[in-house]
Write a structure and sequence with these properties.
The complex is a heterodimer of chains A (257) and B (247). Chain A has 257 residues and is mainly α. In chain A, 86% of the residues lie in helices and 0% in strands. Chain B is of the alpha/beta class and 247 residues long. Chain B has helices at residues 40-48, 71-74, 92-96, 98-101, 109-122, 139-151, 169-186, 197-203, 230-237; strands spanning 2-11, 14-24, 29-34, 55-60, 63-64, 77-80, 157-161, 189-193, 206-211, 214-220. Classes of the chains: A mainly alpha (257), B alpha/beta (247). Chains A and B meet through helix 5 of A and loops of B.
């Protein structure tokens, strides 16, 4: 009986959370299309989420591209297929590693900072203060962050893909004895426009997931510093899990349909 | 004018408010006292439209407070939060004039800053404070900035949530004097939540004691200390035994 009751409570809690998230998403879209628009807040969010993520994303992509080239070379040499390194680095970065690693890195950096900032505002009554000052917290805090993350992640992923391919190229010509022209020609001939666009479209979804997770968990933070810590952790974990799950669904949709 | 009519509110299985009625006429100052966790802050949040009551109605100057459209009544209300609730990312002057910079009533940055400095002076702070950030201020200064934000735009009603909590006796007296002065000069209706009996007598004319979700005693603040009411006696003397359940 106790097991059934606990199970019922879990289901109830899960459905309650789904309801809250749905309500939150509807509220974001309603506030996105109605005035006022806080232009300065949107620009600030673009700077903090997009521009400030570039260094960490670039470094991650550079090293990943380099490591990928080494791994493919080592694997490919077992059946004399070393020449596939440029093509697989390019396709792997554009389709999979660029978007997923970029999404996870930005999730760690941005979802945590959004959840901590909004969560602190929640537990110190700053969100209530916003409402009493005739300002809708969703419009003022959430909409700019969701817009900035959703629009800047595709751009970040495109840049990350390029840097990752550059990483593979540098390792290819310096460590694996590829000639520069062969490497570039092989990359250009094998990489298709659909490979690049699939990654960029994934970025739109991942950006939305990151901002939603950070904002939602921050908005529902409670119980002081401990609650903000929990909200931050939940934001990052949820963003990472949903990015990986969404990545699988989108990969199925793009390449297996 | 504030009218709270038969408000009920339950969170989960806990009944927090059980038929609360409060009436505060224009220009009056009322203090709401009671034990911690007794539902006093919930009343303020219902007044602001942040929480919807399960039952009952609230009117601000005869306009019904709506959880769905809090903006209808919020423009008449100023609020001083317990922890000041200043926005960390904005300088003091933008905190004070936030509703004129981001809200529905717009002012230019220059006019907003001038207005902020005027209000800083009203609460006894120097114009130099205007460009500082909340993190650079002491607890007492933050409270005064929050008070300046609460009074900007001449609201008809000001709500104070434990305005002197965490302050030393000198700063407590300063804040209480400022509140009294503001109430008298601005002809506003105020509702103050506090545990501090000396503050109650300094800043309010009327008092209501809330316990277990109900108003147990109402009267003039000067009658509070001499009251024979068992709830009042237990509360102001800090007794463990009595009708108020402290467990």
């Amino acid at each position: 009986m106790k097991v059934l009751r606990n199970l019922g409570q879990c289901v109830n809690c899960f459905l309650n959370k789904i309801g809250k998230v749905t309500d939150f998403i509807i509220s974001i879209f309603l506030n996105l299309v109605t005035p006022p628009i806080y232009g300065r807040e949107i620009l600030k969010a673009f700077y903090q989420i997009g521009w400030m993520s570039l260094p960490v994303l670039g470094l991650t992509a550079l090293f990943t591209g380099g490591a990928l080239a080494l791994q493919i070379y080592a694997g490919g040499s077992r059946f004399n297929a070393e020449q596939v390194v440029p093509a697989i680095v390019a396709i792997g970065m554009a389709r999979e590693l660029g978007p997923v690693l970029g999404g996870l890195i930005v999730a760690a950096r941005v979802a945590s900072s959004i959840a901590a900032e909004i969560g602190t505002m929640k537990v110190t009554e700053q969100l209530d203060a916003l409402t009493t000052l005739s300002t809708n917290p969703i419009k003022y805090l959430v909409v700019p962050r969701v817009l900035a993350a959703t629009l800047s992640l595709p751009a970040l992923i495109a840049i990350g893909d390029s840097i990752g391919i550059l990483g593979g190229y540098l390792v290819g010509i310096n460590r694996l004895d590829f000639s520069s022209s062969t490497y570039l020609a092989s990359t250009a001939s094998m990489l298709q426009i659909s490979d690049i666009f699939s990654g960029i479209i994934k970025g739109v979804f991942f950006g939305f997931i990151i901002a939603l997770s950070g904002c939602f968990n921050g908005f529902y933070a409670s119980n002081g510093a401990e609650g903000v810590g929990k909200a931050t952790k939940s934001a990052v974990v949820a963003a990472c899990v949903f990015i990986l799950a969404t990545n699988y669904i989108l990969t199925e949709a793009f390449f297996n349909s | 004018m504030i009218e709270i009519k038969n408000i009920h509110k339950t969170f989960g299985k806990q009944k927090v408010l059980d038929g609360v009625n409060i009436f505060a006429h224009q220009g009056s100052s009322t203090a709401l006292i009671g034990t911690s966790g007794g539902g006093k802050s919930v009343i303020l949040k219902i007044l602001l439209g942040l929480i919807e009551p399960d039952e009952g109605e609230v009117f601000i100057d005869k306009v019904k407070v709506s959880h769905r459209e809090p903006g209808r009544t919020l423009s008449r209300i100023g609020m001083l939060f317990q922890g000041s609730a200043l926005f960390d990312s904005l300088p003091v002057w933008q905190n004070i004039c936030f509703k004129f910079l981001k809200g529905t009533e717009k002012l230019s940055s220059k006019d907003a800053k001038e207005l902020a400095i005027q209000n800083l002076e009203k609460v006894g702070l120097n114009y130099k404070v205007a460009n500082k950030f909340p993190a650079d201020l002491s607890g007492g200064m933050k409270k005064r900035v929050a008070l300046a934000r609460a009074i900007v735009g001449n609201p008809k009603i000001i709500l104070f949530d434990e305005p002197t909590t965490g302050l030393d006796p000198i700063m407590t007296n300063t804040i209480n004097s400022l509140i009294r002065e503001i109430v008298e000069t601005m002809d506003v209706t105020t509702l103050t939540i506090t545990h501090d009996i000396s503050s109650v007598q300094q800043i309010s004319d009327n008092v209501a004691l809330l316990d277990s979700g109900r108003i147990r005693w109402e009267g003039k603040s000067k009658e509070l200390k001499g009251s024979k009411d068992p709830y009042v006696f237990q509360f102001i003397n800090g007794k463990h035994n009595g009708p108020i359940n402290v467990n």
